Automatic annotation (TrEMBL):
Organism: Allocatelliglobosispora scoriae
Alphabetical keyword list: Transferase
SUPFAM superfamilies hit by this protein: Protein kinase-like (PK-like)
Annotated InterPro entries: Aminoglycoside_PTrfase, Kinase-like_dom_sf
Lineage: Bacteria, Bacillati, Actinomycetota, Actinomycetes, Micromonosporales
Positions of transmembrane segments: none
Single GO term (MF): transferase activity
Descriptive protein name: Spectinomycin phosphotransferase
Residue intervals of the Aminoglycoside phosphotransferase domain: 60-271
Length: 329
């Protein structure tokens, strides 16, 4: 695959790579990522994906051109495109950010303030015309993830000899009441919001710590724009004001530092609660990896731990339900 990919990059982007190493950080089954190195020692993120929206690449080029810090513009093809098409997939090349993963624990107060300022600059981008006009719009529906949760619930009622499936079933059934309440709250809140008006902004769509890279001088880079969307700002802010990662909760001090950079928010509690409920439903798709016996045991075990975190007292399911209760008054 690497030799084929190097040929594509050379033909489409005019870039000769001396090496390609696949990176396994992502949670997206529709995408594969490599770190490529040029003859001069420079590094590039080479991505092949069938997911998300290509408008995200156009958007990052636009944001970088406007001077928004922390945004890496894609390398263009000979025809000036931000990506090429290869065997039904989208191929893109972006300069490799010279930072460390925020999930490794290197986020200082300065980084949180920079992150806040960066997201504020993204949200200040106009949504009419240009790349922003090509983004999908938040429609406050969640039929797909809600149906998935029901399907998994039915599947786990059947007995299994697989130890990981049995462990998943035990945790899933123990949380049955919360999962039912989660779907119900999402239905209720989504119905209210579909009939409401709101100011839309350009949203990254997935700005959790796994999509942040940090530098030693307080620099922050926001990567992976495949889920970019036009939506109310709470769509992004829930990742800080609510928190979605049980193993990396956002502290009060980190939240305050973020808001120092972002500015006054005054979030709508109903929207914040809905996006948390929707995200919780979406994140439960990690259960599919546990059920897929074709995957390596190590990968399935890691997925089981993630599901356990989602359902834990510190996880996004109880966080979303608590936000829904607050939104209800």
């Amino acid at each position: 695959m690497e030799e084929l990919l190097r040929g594509w990059v050379r033909a489409d982007f005019g870039l000769d790579l001396v090496s390609l190493d696949e990176v396994g950080h992502g949670a997206d089954d529709a995408a594969r990522l490599w770190r490529g190195r040029g003859a001069g020692g420079e590094s590039f993120a080479v991505k092949v994906t069938t997911g998300g929206t290509p408008a995200g690449l156009l958007l990052t080029a636009h944001l970088a051109d406007r001077g928004v810090p922390g945004i890496l513009a894609p390398r263009t093809t000979a025809s000036g495109a931000c990506w090429s098409e290869r065997e039904g997939s989208r191929l893109s090349v972006v300069r490799w950010a010279p930072g460390d993963r925020a999930l490794a624990g290197g986020m200082t107060g300065a980084h949180w303030r920079t992150f806040g300022a960066l997201l504020a600059a993204v949200h200040a981008t106009g949504v009419s015309g240009g790349p922003a006009g090509l983004l999908p719009r938040e429609d406050h529906t969640h039929d797909g993830p809600a149906a998935f949760v029901r399907t998994i619930t039915d599947r786990l009622r059947r007995p299994s000899d697989d130890l990981l499936v049995r462990a998943l079933a035990e945790r899933w059934h123990a949380a049955a009441g919360e999962l039912s309440a989660l779907s119900g709250r999402a239905d209720e809140l989504g119905g209210r919001l579909r009939d409401a008006t709101a100011v839309e902004v350009v949203c990254h769509g997935d700005p959790h710590l796994g999509n942040l890279l940090v530098g030693p001088g307080g620099e922050v880079w926001l990567i992976d724009w495949d889920d970019a969307v036009r939506a109310p700002r709470e769509r992004d802010l829930m990742f800080v004001l609510g928190g979605v990662l049980a193993f990396a909760p956002v502290t009060a001090q980190q939240r305050a530092s973020f808001l120092d950079g972002y500015g006054d928010v005054g979030p709508d509690p109903v929207r914040l609660a809905y996006y948390l409920c929707k995200r919780a439903l979406e994140d439960l798709d990690w259960a599919a990896r546990v059920l897929d016996v074709r995957r390596p045991v190590e990968e399935r075990t890691a997925a089981l731990e993630i599901v356990g975190g989602i359902l834990s007292p510190e996880g996004i399911v109880p966080i979303a339900l608590a936000a829904a209760r607050r939104a209800a008054g």
